[in-house]
Amino acid sequence: MRGRWVRSVYLLWLGLSVCAWPARSQAARDILGGPDSHETGEGPHGHLLGDWGGTRTRLAGRGVTFDLQYVADFLGNIEGDKPGTFAAWDRIRGTVVIAFDSLGLPGLHFFATGVWQEGSSLGTYLGLLTSPSGMSSQNTFRLDSWWVEKRWLKDRLVARVGQFAGQDFYGAQHLAASFIFEPMGYALGNLFNTFEVFDPPSTPAVEIRVVPIPHLYVKSMLMAGDSVPFTHNRTGLIPQLHGHHVSVAEIGFTPGQKASSVRAFDNVATRKGYSGLYQFGVSYNPGTFIAPTTGTTRSQNYLLYGMASQALWRVNPKGGKGLDATVAYDWSPPSVNRLYRELTAGLSYNEPLPVHFHNAMSIGYVQNTLSPEFLPPGVPGWRPEHAVELNVLLDPMQWLLVQPVIQYFANAGGGTQHAVVLGFRTKVDF
Prior knowledge:
By secondary structure, this protein is mainly beta. It has one domain (2-429): Beta Barrel (Porin), CATH 2.40.160.180. The protein is built from 5 helices and 18 strands. The protein has a 16-stranded antiparallel barrel. A two-stranded antiparallel sheet has the order 10-11. It has helices at 2-18, 55-61, 122-126, 182-185, 229-232; strands at residues 64-80, 86-99, 108-119, 140-152, 157-164, 203-213, 216-224, 245-253, 276-285, 289-290, 297-298, 301-314, 322-331, 339-350, 358-370, 385-395, 400-410, 418-429. 9% of the residues lie in helices and 44% in strands.
């Protein structure tokens, strides 16, 4: 516990020290996604420690926004084939975003974020393909991502270079904040088939994004496809080039809003009106992969995906209260990918409760399919794993989010076992 507080204070100090730079702001919530995204505007009441007597507002006016956040999933299996157990996964994240407009460098931005996270993985204990928590990975204390970004032509042309993760922006679930289990609460669960990296072990990368017409964007990213990124770069401080390069590309159509304003993840503001996002992408690795049955090598690997998120119904056509839907599907060659196919779908109802604070109810479904070419001898056959989640998101104080959830898993790990998981997510913005 003492080490946790030391790390928290260090991240806070890091954010404050970087904030000495003058500039003009770019909100961190436009960049962070999944469990780390902000459901509501930050404002003077969006932080537990408030506006610090106007200090936050003054810094934002000079172009610096910073954030310190605690988020945790507390989950336990209450029914199933394995004995009941409790698992917690928590994370502290510090983030700084700087815009250099006031220095005579319009469109130039800098972003950096560091994390401390630890806990136990309930999905590993239960042998699941669908992780009950979208955060659980590996215990670490590190610099996660940083990059320098330049924007031209009113954000219609953007270039980025630094250390960042492909799964933060390609194959990312647009409605991720509405869900807790991994394939819907962060990004598609088998993107690592091609070694498309995730956070926090981000790798060196470059990206370019173009908006040729108002509602259409095209973007592409090149990253180091490290198969063991936690091992090669334990602190994140020194960029490491390991493995073959991985290239990802995506084209997106955004009815209801301009493509230049679309981010990988949604928030409360982007849900207003009948907006949507339709994405088609590919991840490609030219490296060598081994087929498990024959032992022969394959000189490449790839994954294709399609995703769609759309507002279906609104109480007020220009408001955010109403029903949203999302669906995604991906496929990669079953000859070299054990988890080669994944389907996700969900519905989210915004502001269903007659209360003064933000709330939402969501139901999600995930189907994972294993390749028969990875079937061990004597095993009769894999079954598709099915996972269903129902959760309620409550944001009673802007700086506090509580999200109770119940999940059901059938055919765990492609077998015959099942599990019922109960718990909640909590998030505090300092």
